[in-house]
Design brief:
- This protein is of the alpha/beta class.
- Among the domains are: about 90 residues, MurE/MurF, N-terminal domain (Udp-n-acetylmuramoylalanyl-d-glutamate--2,6- Diaminopimelate Ligase, Chain: A, domain 1, 3-Layer(aba) Sandwich), CATH 3.40.1390.10; about 150 residues, UDP N-Acetylglucosamine Acyltransferase, domain 1, CATH 2.160.10.10.
- The chain is built from 4 helices and 40 strands.
- The strands form 7 sheets. A 12-stranded mixed beta sheet has the order 8-11-14-17-20-25-28-31-34-37-39-40, with helices on one face. The protein has a 10-stranded parallel beta sheet with strand order 9-12-15-18-21-26-29-32-35-38, with no helix packed on it. A 7-stranded parallel beta sheet has the order 10-13-16-19-24-27-30, with no helix packed on it.
- It starts with a strand and ends with a helix.
Length: about 350
C-alpha cells in the first residue's frame, strides 16, 4: 500500500521538505533503493549516497537540504525506520482457530481469538490469551499461562507452570523452564536436586532462537519487562533480569545472579553465579564477570575489570614484546660490562 510523503511525515511527527504528494511504496537502504522507495541517512557521507540513489525520498535529521530528493525531517532517522518497518512490511496475520493436528487438554483455556498451529501440544489447565499465536510444534506444559498478543515461533517449548506475559515474542527452538543445573555430591555420585520452580517472563520481552531459560530451583527465574535477549543465550536457575536489559548472543548466566534495569551484556560474555549487577551496567564482549558491578559500571576482559583499568592492561600487554626486547638488550649490556670489569 503506497503512502504519500506527507502521510509518512504526519505519522512520524516530522516535516516534509519538497513535494509532500509523492507516493512511497517501500523502505530500503540507499544501495538497494529503487524509485518509490524511502531511504534514510544520519550523516553527511550516508546522505551523499542516498542523494545519488534511486530512492524517491530520504529520512534525515535536522540540517540537511536537497535539490534532488524529497526529504522527511525527523528527530532520529533510525528510530523513524524502526517505526516505519511494520507499516511497509506488516507482520503475517494468523487466523483465529485451532489446527486439527493440535492436542489440547480438556481443562486448557484457549481464547477464541488465539491461533494454535499444527502439532501443538497444550497441557492441562494451560491458559492462552487473546490474539496469541502458537505457530506450530509448540509444547506447553501443565498450568502454563500465556498472555495476550504473544507469539511462539515454531518448536518453542514451555515447561510446566511457567508464565509468559503480554506482547512477548519467543523465537524458534527456544526452551523455557528446562531444569536448572543442580546437583549435590552424595555417596560417591552426583545426586540431582529437583528443580521445582518456574520461569516468569514479563510483558514486551523478545527472546531469540535456540536460547534456554532454566526454571528456578525453588522460586522463579525472572525476565523483566521489555528485556531483549538474543539467540543462543543461556539463563540459569533463579537468575533475575531487570527491565529493558539487552543481552547479546552466546551469553551465559550462572545461577541466582541478579541484573538491574537497562543493563547491556555484550556477546560471548559469561556471568558467574550469585552476583549482583546494578542498574545501567555494561559488560563488554567476551568478558568473564566474577564480581558484583555497581550501578552504571562498565567492565571488560577476563576476569572483567572496570573499563579504564582493563584498557590500560590491554595496552600494557601489547607493549610486552618491546619491553622484553629492551630487557634482553639491557641484560646483554650488563653482562658485557661485568666481563670488562672482571678482566
Amino acid at each position: 500500500m503506497p503512502f504519500t510523503a506527507s502521510q509518512i511525515a504526519e505519522q512520524l511527527h516530522g516535516e516534509v521538505l519538497g513535494d509532500g504528494s509523492v507516493e512511497l511504496t517501500g523502505l530500503a537502504s540507499a544501495d538497494g533503493a529503487k524509485p518509490g522507495d524511502l531511504t534514510f541517512a544520519e550523516k553527511e557521507t550516508y546522505f551523499a549516497a542516498a542523494e545519488e540513489s534511486q530512492a524517491t525520498a530520504i529520512l534525515v535529521p535536522g540540517g540537511f537540504a536537497s535539490s534532488k530528493k524529497v526529504l522527511i525531517r525527523v528527530p532520529n532517522p533510525r528510530v523513524a525506520v524502526a517505526r516505519l518497518l511494520p507499516v511497509f512490511f506488516p507482520p503475517d496475520q494468523h487466523a483465529p482457530g485451532v489446527h486439527a493436528s493440535a492436542t489440547i487438554a480438556p481443562s486448557a483455556q484457549i481464547d477464541p481469538t488465539a491461533h494454535i498451529g499444527p502439532n501443538c501440544v497444550i497441557g492441562p489447565r494451560v491458559r492462552v490469551g487473546a490474539r496469541s499465536v502458537l505457530m506450530g510444534g509448540n509444547h506447553l506444559g501443565r498450568d502454563c499461562q500465556i498472555g495476550d498478543d504473544t507469539c511462539l515461533f515454531p518448536n518453542v517449548v514451555i515447561y510446566a507452570r511457567c508464565q509468559v506475559g503480554h506482547r512477548v515474542s519467543i523465537h524458534a527452538g527456544t526452551v523455557i523452564g528446562s531444569d536448572g543445573y543442580g546437583y549435590v555430591f552424595d555417596e560417591g555420585r552426583h545426586r540431582k536436586v529437583l528443580q521445582v520452580g518456574n520461569v516468569i517472563i514479563h510483558d514486551d520481552v523478545e527472546i531469540g532462537a535456540n536460547s534456554a531459560i532454566d526454571r528456578g530451583a525453588l522460586g522463579s527465574t525472572v525476565i523483566g519487562q521489555g528485556a531483549k535477549i538474543d539467540n543462543l543465550v543461556h539463563i540459569a536457575h533463579n537468575v533475575s533480569i531487570g527491565r529493558h536489559c539487552l543481552v547479546m548472543g552466546q551469553v551465559g548466566f550462572a545461577g541466582s545472579t541478579r541484573l538491574g534495569d537497562y543493563c547491556v551484556i555484550a556477546s560471548q560474555s559469561g556471568i558467574a553465579g550469585h552476583l549482583k549487577l546494578g542498574h545501567q551496567v555494561t559488560v563488554g564482549a567476551k568478558s568473564g564477570v566474577m564480581r558484583d558491578i555497581p550501578d552504571k559500571g562498565t567492565v571488560l576482559g577476563i576476569p572483567a575489570a572496570p573499563d579504564k583499568q582493563a584498557k590500560r592492561q590491554m595496552i600494557a600487554v601489547q607493549q610486552l614484546p618491546e619491553l622484553i626486547r629492551r630487557t634482553r638488550e639491557l641484560e646483554k649490556q650488563v653482562a658485557e660490562l661485568k666481563a670488562r670489569v672482571g678482566s
